[in-house]
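Memo to structure team: turn this sequence into structure tokens by end of day. - J.P.
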Amino acid sequence: MAEIVKAGYDPAITPVPVSPAAHYTIGGIVTDLSARTDVAHLYAAGECAATGVHGANRLASNSLLECLVFGRRAALTALDEPGSTFAAVDAANAADAANSADAAGAVAPPAREPVAALIPDERIVTDDVREHVWRDAGVMRDPAALARLALSPDPVAMLVARFALARHESRGVHYRIDATEPDPAFEGHFVLRPGRELTLEHWT
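Reply from structure team:
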């Protein structure tokens, strides 16, 4: 309530304005049932993942269950994955313990990549990008606006538009004014894998 008042609204006098929110894309990083991705030692769970266990519409309960179930699976898989950082550290610790009687002979843990080196450059989402995505890929979509957004320098905005252009139908929260009904030909998942073009995949 304090934030609402701070924004200049008093619900006791005037109704608080409500605006629709958009799920610009539903899906995410493709994983197997252990939360593995196509990238070695990279796992995904929850909102960012496309596990295949939810349908055309992602509901809050889907995300919660995926986070709880696949979050646990991701953690357990990462701990047991051969060649993982965790396995290497465990091996180094075991070797260190075995040689603890002779400090000079203790096995040093393997060299690890500095954490900072593993973090990509920060993606800055400007108000301009938000406005363009809302305008061109919001609740109702048309091909001309999507084509314009597909030229965006922002990688996420560009991919949202490319996926929406490829799906020439309306399904779930994806609604195109030029194709207002679901098309059986598009029953599947559009996936972009490293080194490949956008492909419609049929998962079982």
